[in-house]
Design a protein that fits this description.
With about 220 residues, this protein is α/β, with parallel strands linked by helices. It contains 9 helices and 10 strands. It has a single domain, classed as TIM Barrel (Alpha-Beta Barrel), CATH 3.20.20. About 40% of the residues lie in helices and about 20% in strands. The protein has an 8-stranded parallel beta barrel with strand order 1-4-5-6-7-8-9-10, surrounded by 7 helices. The chain has a two-stranded antiparallel ribbon with strand order 2-3.
């Protein structure tokens, strides 16, 4: 279970503009989250490096820096910020950039969550050496969530590659469906930050997960 610290989104606008990252991170940890994802993009998500620092300092959970990684400096910044993992979006990078950024992340001791949207992008991710793949159910252009996308792509993810389903996880039923499709973890933001009790929200999603394959492998 990867729980996300997220103030706003391009599709929904403000979600929790006044959230306190440390408090949210602590609630996630109390609920049993195994990894944090923190938005640091300011323009579209209202995040910052400070949000990551505050969340990082409030728990012992590993942290994914969630941002648009488009240069080697962005990978280095993730390490400088104190993140344990960095996001690489296949749709935003060419094959050379993907390989270079993934290699740099490994060299710096960062895990790399390589995000894909379809089978073609998955092939590119695997060719770049990805061992941790996120499948985003939300279309980057229309912002629509396609639940069939995750099931379809899951069938082509090789054994040994850790898989994470992203976006559109609204509750335990969605988590069960994704676990049954073969995912090792879910990454959840909007549902949790909009919850009156984020810790309970995490617990509700965790009880649906396969106990033997959890998000502890994601950022280690």
């Amino acid at each position: 279970m990867v729980a996300e610290v997220k103030r706003r989104s391009p599709s929904k606008g403000d979600l929790a503009p006044g959230l306190v990252p440390a408090h949210v991170a602590q609630a996630y940890a109390q609920g049993g989250a195994r990894c944090l994802s923190v938005l640091t993009d300011a323009e579209f998500f209202g995040g910052s490096a400070q949000d990551l620092a505050e969340a990082r300092g409030a728990t012992t959970l590993p942290v994914l820096r969630k941002d648009f990684t488009v240069a080697e400096a962005d990978v280095c910044d993730a390490r400088i910020m104190g993140a344990d993992a960095v996001l690489l979006i296949v749709a935003a990078l060419d094959d050379g950039e993907l390989r270079a950024f993934h290699g740099l992340a490994v060299e710096l001791g960062l895990a790399a969550l390589v995000e894909v949207h379809d089978e073609v992008e998955l092939e590119r991710a695997l060719a770049a050496g990805a061992a941790l793949v996120g499948v985003n159910q939300r279309d980057l252009v229309s912002f629509e969530v396609d639940h069939d996308r995750a099931r379809r792509v899951a069938a082509t993810i090789p054994p040994g590659v850790v898989s994470v389903a992203e976006s559109g996880v609204r509750g335990p039923d969605d988590a069960v469906r994704l676990a049954e499709a073969g995912y090792d973890a879910v990454l959840v933001g909007e549902t949790l930050v909009c919850s009156e009790d984020p810790a309970a929200g995490v617990r509700a999603l965790r009880v649906s997960r396969r106990p033997a394959q959890e998000a502890g492998r994601l950022c280690s």
